[in-house]
Amino acid sequence: MIKLKKILVATDHSPQARWAENRAAMLSVELTADLLDIMSMPGTLKTSPCSLALTNEKSGGAISLDMLLHERKLAGSTTSIASQPVCTRSTATSKPVTAMLERAKELAADLTVVAAKKRTTMVNFFTCQTNSELIRQSDRPILLVNSQSQAPYSRIIVAIDFSEHSREAALIALAVAPTAYFTFLNACHVTNEGIMREAGITNEVINKYRDKACEKARTRLNQFIDDLGPRTELIARAIQYGFPVPVICDRAKRLNADLIVIGKHGTSRLHELLLGSVAQRLIDHTTCDLLVVATPRRLCRENPLQREKAERKLGAPHAGDNETFISTGK
């Protein structure tokens, strides 16, 4: 069972970064983490009024998590001192992305939490780029906080494409919110459907291909969940025809989800750029937080043929399949 014991939250103490601080503090209590590190960006700690909640330091730079939770009026502030994580503060001394990556590595952080930024104006374009760059370079789970909340995650969508990448994402999701209601969602569509229509193939025939694709995906999803082993969490299974981002956004709105979880695919620059685009579109078009789970290092080191063979054993799509499934890195 995966345990998230060390949490890093990066903040510039802006209102949106405060949401990230709140969520990180809540998670550290809910998951009985050992450590919560609050890293301030350069030049923000002394000038931000939000930083006043962090000034009660103990020896070694530790701060009172109980006081932090109380100041933010968050659930969990009455937890016993014995069950609370050590809460420390650090200050970045380099560019934000570099500082976050280095601090996460230094701490061996299991989760990095940052504020999400919607791409609504050119003013925040560069902040969005920072988030995309962090996702691209990180080899650890990244939680982008997109909304303010004072309650634990309760409705979570996990995008599933049957690969080892989405398996890792599913396991991390289950660890982040073990008491939540999960929907494991697979989007499928028929490859070259547009070409088939141009060739004059009837809707009746195309619909048969769609039905076949959805039925095959349903079988794979059932097997995928079974392969995770015995679970106590509530997991619903959903198959929806369409392309990944619209399908995920539609399902998130219908379920009023508060967290979306996706896996990080591929190690190429193209895959990483596309992942950043997918992540930003999900942030822009939903109010959900977004958890991006990096590809396991062990999978990246495998021979490509061995990796394909392993994924095919799980039922993952490959170049010869007639269907295309949710893939955040394609």
CATH topology descriptor of the largest domain: Rossmann fold
Please state the second-level CATH architecture of the largest domain. 3-Layer(aba) Sandwich
* Major sheet: 12 strands, mixed
- Oligomeric category: single chain
Uncertain stretches of 5 or more adjacent residues: 46-63, 75-79, 298-330
User: N-to-C SSE series?
Assistant: EHEEHEHEHEEHEHHEHEHEHHE
Shape: globular
Number of distinct helices: 11
What share of residues are in beta strands?
Answer: 15-25%
Cα-based radius of gyration, to the nearest Å: 21 Å
Tell me what you see in this structure.
The chain is globular, with a radius of gyration of 21 Å. Strands 1, 2, 3, 4, 5, 6, 7, 8, 9, 10, 11 and 12 form a twelve-stranded mixed beta sheet that branches. It has helices at 15-30, 65-71, 96-107, 125-137, 164-176, 193-198, 203-227, 244-255, 269-285, 297-301, 304-313; strands at 6-11, 35-40, 62-63, 86-91, 111-115, 142-145, 155-159, 181-190, 234-241, 259-263, 289-293, 323-325. It has two domains: 6-145, HUPs (Rossmann fold, 3-Layer(aba) Sandwich), CATH 3.40.50; 155-325, Rossmann fold, CATH 3.40.50.620. Helix 5 (164-176) links the parallel strand 7 (155-159) and strand 8 (181-190). The chain is of the alpha/beta class.
